């Protein structure tokens, strides 16, 4: 059963426990024990989340593979700004 959870997370990325339970047709209580085992072994990273979808509060456990890092955000990254006068300065 653990292999099917890992396979599902590999194919679909980060998912809520309710979505995993529904997709794999596993009772929620059994899924929570399986995810706890996977988390203890280091295969899966889990955290408690609260999401608001269409005004409804949904609390659950978000799970992802431990080796699967989220993609970096697009766009400019914060950092040191280049001094516009840096090219005009000459070392003495």
Automatic annotation (TrEMBL):
It comes from the Bacteria. Residues 80-92 have a biased composition (Basic and acidic residues). Residues 70-92 are annotated as: Disordered. This is ArsR family transcriptional regulator.
